[in-house]
Amino acid sequence: MCGRFALFSPYPALSRALRLPLAPGKVIPRYNVAPGTWITGVRHPDEPAPLVMDDLWWGYRPHWARETSPEPINATVEKVATSPYFRGAFAHHRCLIPADGWYEWRPAEGGKQPYFLCRRDREPVWLAGIWSERPDGKPGCAILTEPARGVAREIHGRMPVVLDAESLAPWLDPRVTERETLRGAVHHLAAEALTHWPVSHRVNRPVNDEPSLIAPAAG
Question: CA torsion, points 62, 65, 68, 69, in degrees to nearest 10?
Answer without folding.
Answer: -60
